[in-house]
Amino acid sequence: MEMKQNIVFVGAGSMAEAMISGMLQKELFMPRQISVMNRSNHVRLEELNKTYGVTITTNIKETIENAGIIIFAIKPKDVAQAVLAIKDHINENQLIISVLAGVATTTITDLLNKKVPVVRAMPNTSATIGKSATALSIGMYATENHLLISRQLFETIGIVTTVEEKDLHAVTGLSGSGPAYVYYLVEAMEKAADEIGLEKGIAKELILQTIIGAAEMLKSSPKQPATLRKEVTSPGGTTEAGINVLEQFNYQQAMVSCIKRATNRSAELGEAMLQSVSDKK
């Protein structure tokens, strides 16, 4: 269903592009409804205009005032500068959506000093191929309708779930950073394939299909991961031999510690961001 309001992206990086691509592909917006602005990289804006037909603009006042939805897709460290640059043109009937890791909804509303609804999102880099796992949470002035609108936007780039804002640090550690953990595993599998003598192209094809197949199995089967693992682990067989080595290296505990540390780091960055914004106010 096409939305009738205009939308503006503050920031023109890969996440903004992924969302623009998804929204246009699913016909949620027409190109004329989408505007994009950034701080200084006009070449990047020209690329998005040429590729998607969206409007690029330096007229902050007109663009912001005519938008129903404003999406912050910039580096978290730039949030204070970006919000303060547009705050005079924002009103309380608009919806702000933030994809800034570690930046609380209250940080944005405090900078605006207005009761503007803010929805915070944590997608991941798989958004670029429409396979993101995105978590949403609402700020104090946002309603269920604002959440519904946000859900529609992010469903154009993958699946969406809703969590309390306090849980977004955990989401960041688990699924926000999650693609990198999988890529790291694939790096190890490719290294192993080389050491056991498999040709690089063949190894890559086998590794990718193995991961895709396992993921599809997890998605389609009602069985728990541990059950699926045990079903392919014959006593005294090759899989058991490999799993035994992983257990010797505390593989599962390493992954648990990895996710916990990433979660804690998200919280640390959030605290640092709060302090930084407080210093600039």
Describe the structure.
The structure is a single chain. The protein has 281 residues and is an alpha/beta fold. It has 2 domains: 7-168, NAD(P)-binding Rossmann-like Domain (Rossmann fold, 3-Layer(aba) Sandwich); 178-260, ProC C-terminal domain-like fold. It has 12 helices and 8 strands. The chain has helices at 14-25, 42-52, 60-65, 79-86, 105-112, 144-154, 168-176, 178-195, 200-220, 225-231, 238-248, 251-280, and strands at 7-10, 34-37, 55-56, 69-72, 95-98, 118-122, 132-138, 158-162. It has an 8-stranded mixed β-sheet with strand order 3-2-1-4-5-6-7-8, sandwiched between helices. Helix 8 (178-195) crosses helix 9. The longest helix has 30 residues, at 251-280.
* Helix proportion range: 40-55%
Largest sheet composition:
8 strands, mixed
Q: How many H/I helical runs?
A: 12
Proper CATH architecture of the largest domain: 3-Layer(aba) Sandwich
Mean pLDDT, to the nearest integer, reads 93
Order of helices and strands: EHEHEHEHEHEEHEHHHHHH
> What is the CATH class designation of the largest domain?
Alpha Beta
CATH fold label of the largest domain: Rossmann fold
List the domain count as a whole number. 2
Estimate what percentage of residues fall within beta strands.
5-15%
The total strand number stands at: 8
Oligomer type: single chain
The CATH fourth-level homologous superfamily of the largest domain: NAD(P)-binding Rossmann-like Domain
Overall spatial form = elongated
How many angstroms does the end-to-end distance come to?
40 Å
Rg from alpha-carbon coordinates: 22 Å
Indicate the structural class.
alpha/beta
Q: Which strand order spans the largest sheet, edge to edge or round the barrel?
A: 3-2-1-4-5-6-7-8
The unreliable regions are none
